[in-house]
Design brief:
The protein has 450 residues and is an alpha/beta fold. It folds into two domains: 3-19 and 238-448, Enolpyruvate transferase domain (UDP-n-acetylglucosamine1-carboxyvinyl-transferase, Chain), CATH 3.65.10.10; 22-236, Enolpyruvate transferase domain (UDP-n-acetylglucosamine1-carboxyvinyl-transferase, Chain), CATH 3.65.10.10. The protein contains twelve helices and 24 strands. The protein has helices spanning 22-34, 48-59, 100-111, 131-139, 175-185, 203-210, 241-252, 272-279, 323-332, 352-362, 393-403, 425-433, and strands spanning 3-6, 13-16, 38-42, 64-70, 74-81, 94-95, 116-120, 143-146, 156-159, 167-169, 191-195, 215-218, 221-225, 234-236, 258-265, 283-292, 294-302, 310-311, 335-339, 366-370, 373-378, 386-388, 410-413, 446-448. The strands form six sheets. The chain has a five-stranded mixed sheet. Strands 2-15-17-16 form a four-stranded mixed sheet. Helix 11 links the parallel strand 22 (386-388) and strand 23. Helix 2 packs parallel to helix 3 and helix 7 (241-252) runs parallel beside helix 11 (393-403). The longest helix has 13 residues, at 22-34. The two termini are 35 Å apart. It binds shikimate-3-phosphate. Shikimate-3-phosphate binds at residues 23, 101, 174-176, 179, 200-201, 320-321, 344.
Length: 450
C-alpha cells in the first residue's frame, strides 16, 4: 500500500502547471461522445475517475484514440468519435470507481437511452446518496433500481425510457444533480428546467454552449430544450484549481514564498478559494489570459502570516472540494476559522468533516466538530503524525500539505487514492520537498503518439 512521507520545508519558490480539471474532463468525455463528429480534447485529466468515464463512453459506442499520454496514467490529448446522440447498449456493467460525478452524470445520460444499463463503483461510492438523482430522473419517467446494500445506494440499474421534461427545484446545491438532470433533459421531449438553491459550478452549462447546445438562464434556473445535437469541437481543459489549491495553501502559509501556477481554470464558480486565502492574508495575483468557454489564467501567490476567517454559507458550494486543505490553512493561521453550512462534506469520498477533524487533532491542532462543519483555533504548532487518508484523495493531499509545516515527519498511509484526481502529485510534492524551483523539475513525463 502506498504512502507519503513529508517533512517541514523552509522555502517554496516554484513555477509549474497542475494537471487538467477533473469536473471538466468528465464532461468533455461525455459531450464529445454525444457530438455529431470527431472531437479533440487537450489536457484531459488521466486520473482514475475521468478514465472510468472515458471508458464508459467507449463501452457505449464512442471510440477514442490517444494522441499523447501521461506516462503510466493515460491520455492527455485524444480524439473521441462522437455518436450523434445514438449510444449503444454496453456489453457489461459500467465501473465508475470512486467517482460521484461519473456515476451521477452517467445516470442522467443513461436514463433516456433505449436500453438498460448498470453503474457500479467502489466501497466509498457504494455508500454515497443516489436518491438525489434517482428522484428527479424518476420524475422524468426513468426507472432506476438502487441495488446497494445501503438504501438508495449504488449499484444502479437504469431502465432507459423516453423521458418527460420537468421543472426541478433542487433540494441540495449540487452541480452533479444539476448536470444529471440537464443530461437527461437533452434526451427529453420538451424543455427541462433545473432551479438551484445556490449557484454551483457551471461547467456543464459552459460546455453545452461550447458544443452549440442552447440553454436559457434566469437567476439560478437553467432551461434546456431536448433533442439538440452537440456539434463536434476542439476543447482544451484548464488546469484544476482544486489541485492547485494544495500548493496555493502551502505557499500562502509560508512567509517569503513565491509560487506561480500556470494555465489554471479560473471559472468564477470555482475561485472562492482565492478570495478566502487573500482574506486570510496571502498576496495573490490572478490573471485571466484566455477565455474560450472556460477562463484560464495564471495565479501568482506570495506567502504571509495568515489570520483566521469565517467561510460564508454562500461560499461553500464554490469551494466545497477545497475545504480539507483550507482547514489545514486555518490550523496554520492565527485566530479562529469557522467553516459551517458544509454538511455536504459528510457525503463526499469520506465524511470529510470527521476525517479532517481527526487528522488535524492528531497533528496537535485545536478543532471543534459540528454537524455542519468545524471551528479551528489556529496557530498551535503542528507535529508530525501517522495518518490515514481513509482512501480519500483530498484528505491524503491536504495532510501532505500539513506535513510541510509540522515538526518531525508526517506519514500518510493509503495514498494510492491521489490518482483519483491528481496523477503526478507525489512527483510535485517531492520537487517541493527538494526545494526545486524550475518548471522542468515539475514536468510530468508524457509520450506523444502524433
Ligand atoms: C462536481 C461537483 C461537486 C464536487 C465534485 C465535482 C462536479 O459535487 O464536490 O468533486 O464535477 O459536478 P456536488 O455537485 O455534489 O456538490
Amino acid at each position: 500500500m502506498s504512502e507519503l512521507r513529508v517533512q517541514a520545508i523552509s522555502s517554496l519558490r516554484a513555477e509549474f502547471s497542475v494537471p487538467g480539471d477533473k469536473s471538466i474532463s468528465h464532461r468533455a468525455a461525455i459531450f464529445s461522445a454525444l457530438a455529431n463528429g470527431v472531437c479533440t480534447i487537450r489536457n484531459f485529466l488521466p486520473s482514475e475517475d475521468c478514465l472510468n468515464t472515458l471508458n464508459a463512453m467507449q463501452a457505449l459506442g464512442a471510440r477514442h484514440e490517444v494522441l499523447a499520454e501521461l506516462t503510466g496514467y493515460g491520455p492527455t490529448h485524444l480524439v473521441i468519435h462522437g455518436q450523434a446522440m445514438k449510444l449503444h447498449a454496453p456489453a457489461a456493467a459500467l465501473d465508475c470507481g470512486n467517482s460521484g460525478t461519473g456515476m451521477r452524470l452517467l445516470a442522467g445520460l443513461l436514463a433516456g437511452q433505449p436500453f438498460s444499463s448498470e453503474l457500479f463503483g467502489d466501497a466509498s461510492l457504494s455508500c454515497r446518496p443516489m436518491g438525489r438523482i434517482t428522484t428527479p430522473l424518476g420524475l422524468m419517467g426513468a426507472r432506476i433500481e438502487t441495488r446497494g446494500s445501503q438504501p438508495g445506494c449504488a449499484p444502479l440499474v437504469i431502465h432507459g425510457t423516453p423521458l418527460t421534461p420537468i421543472t426541478y427545484q433542487m433540494p441540495v446545491a449540487s452541480a452533479q444533480v444539476k448536470s444529471a438532470v440537464l443530461l437527461a433533459g437533452l434526451f427529453a421531449n420538451g424543455t427541462t428546467t433545473v432551479v438551484q438553491p445556490a449557484e454551483t459550478r457551471d461547467h456543464t452549462e459552459r460546455m453545452l454552449a461550447s458544443f452549440g447546445v442552447a440553454t436559457h438562464h434566469e437567476g439560478n434556473a437553467i432551461a434546456l430544450a431536448g433533442g439538440q445535437m452537440p456539434v463536434a469541437c476542439e476543447f482544451t481543459v484548464p488546469g484544476d484549481i482544486s489541485s492547485a489549491a494544495f500548493w496555493l495553501v502551502a505557499a500562502a502559509a509560508l512567509p517569503g514564498s513565491r509560487l506561480l501556477l500556470q494555465n489554471v481554470g479560473l471559472n468564477p464558480t470555482r475561485t472562492a478559494i482565492l478570495k478566502v486565502l487573500t482574506r486570510m492574508g496571502a498576496h495573490m495575483i490572478d490573471i485571466v489570459h484566455h477565455s474560450a468557454g472556460e477562463p484560464i489564467g495564471d495565479i501568482e501567490i506570495h506567502g504571509a502570516p495568515l489570520t483566521g476567517t469565517t467561510i460564508l454559507a454562500e461560499e461553500v458550494p464554490n469551494l466545497i472540494d477545497e475545504i480539507p486543505v483550507l482547514a489545514v490553512a486555518a490550523a496554520l493561521a492565527s485566530g479562529r476559522t469557522s467553516i459551517r453550512h458544509a454538511r455536504e462534506l459528510r457525503v463526499k469520498e469520506t465524511d470529510r468533516i470527521t476525517t479532517v477533524v481527526n487528522n488535524l487533532r492528531a497533528m496537535g491542532a485545536h478543532v471543534v466538530e459540528f454537524d455542519d462543519g468545524m471551528e479551528i483555533e489556529g496557530g498551535q504548532p503542528l507535529h508530525g503524525a501517522e495518518l490515514d487518508s481513509f482512501g480519500d484523495h483530498r484528505i491524503a493531499m491536504a495532510f501532505a500539505i500539513a506535513g510541510l509545516f509540522a515538526e518531525g515527519e508526517t506519514l500518510i498511509r493509503n495514498t494510492a487514492c491521489v490518482n483519483t484526481s491528481y496523477p503526478g502529485f507525489a512527483h510535485h510534492l517531492q520537487a517541493i520537498l527538494d526545494h526545486r524551483s524550475s518548471p522542468e523539475d515539475f514536468t510530468l513525463p508524457t509520450l506523444c503518439h502524433l
